[in-house]
Amino acid sequence: MTYRQLFHEIMFYGSFDRMPVLHWTGWPETLERWYQEGLPRDVNQHEFFAAQPWCCMIWTNLSLHPSFEEKTIEETEAYRIFRDRDGVVQQQWKGRSSIPHYIDFTLKNARDWPDYKKRLQPHPERIPADIDQRLRDAEKSGLPIVFHTASMMGWIRNWMGVENMCYLMYDDRDCYKDMIMTLADLTVWAMDQILPRIKADMVFGWEDICGRAGPLVSPEIFAECVAPGYEKIRRRAEYYGIQLYGIDSDGEISALLKPWLDAGVNVQFPAEVGPWQADGMRYRRQYGRNLRIIGHFDKLALERGRDAVRREIERLKPLMRDGGYIIMPDHLITPGVALADYRWYLDQIRDLRI
Predict the structure, then answer these.
(1) Cα gap 144→201, rounded to integer Å
(2) Does residue 247 register a pLDDT over 90?
(3) Are 267 and 12 in contact (CB under 8 A)?
(4) Which of 38, 250, 264, 294 could cross-link 234 (Cys pair, CB 3.0–4.6 Å)?
(5) Per the structure, how many domains does the chain have?
(6) Residues 204 and 218 in one domain
């Protein structure tokens, strides 16, 4: 059974007795540590770990086209301040991983939206020139084939900043709706270019719209403004025979689980455990088998030692047995994890029988 076949058996509650062994990656600082501990710099990590990528992603360019011209404003030995290709002025630190510090935005309110909207229209250049080869490679990979969608909220948050986006939701809700539907329309156009040519297993988008205290959008505004965008993408996915729609959002997602499900999003990735102690089995009891999860293994257990890893696997066994769940760390592997301990963790998943 290929991993793609196993993926289907798990996601649709079929017959399976094991989990796929999946490797995402670590932070750059994690990889530097692993290089010192024996990971060859020029090796294919998946071959080295005898593990799989979690999917084969089919990408089209659904962001700004044309993008803004990148321009350096200030640069020192410690950092660089520049206007990026999304029109955002940000400070980026050198020599260490960190979230960019956003300083200023080109898109601040409804008056600025028309310039962005014209950059979010269909265009042949959005489709990779080598798309035929990419599709052939995807078919041969044995991996689940996933079509990447535009973000309905996270990209807008990045382009505007949290404060500007929150004001817009209340000051000009029609503009916020138009932003979301513009991204949904562009996604559907791209789906129509690609999905007649390949059978995909899932459509999937990035959001990161939740923080430690919950979502940056209320369920009420979600239902009015955001859900129609997801629903449009879901309908087109179903037209192409695709029953899975996944979302990547870190943070405390509980308040949006039902709104997402109601809008057609039925796969959550990575269902971060976090200090709020997210519980996938509790989600399953609340929302049933329509909710699937990929991830949800507390990445910090890998830092706490092998006993902590064993406990975390035991915590997740009921969800694994129930189906609709694939185990994987809930974010990038942190620098506190030794290479030997990470390989040991992968062996535990490899030997696991459900």
Answers:
(1) 6
(2) yes
(3) no
(4) 264
(5) 2
(6) yes
Distance of CA 314 to the CA centre of its chain: 25
Domain housing 326: 3-66+107-351
Residue closest to 143 by CA, chosen among 239, 60, 51? 51
Per-residue pLDDT reduced to its tens digit, 191-227: 999 999 999 999 999 999 999 999 999 999 999 999 9
pTM above 0.90, yes or no: yes
Return the closest-CA partner of residue 298 out of 331, 344, 324, 321. 331
pLDDT of residue 282: 97
Residue 210 tokens read as 């939740």
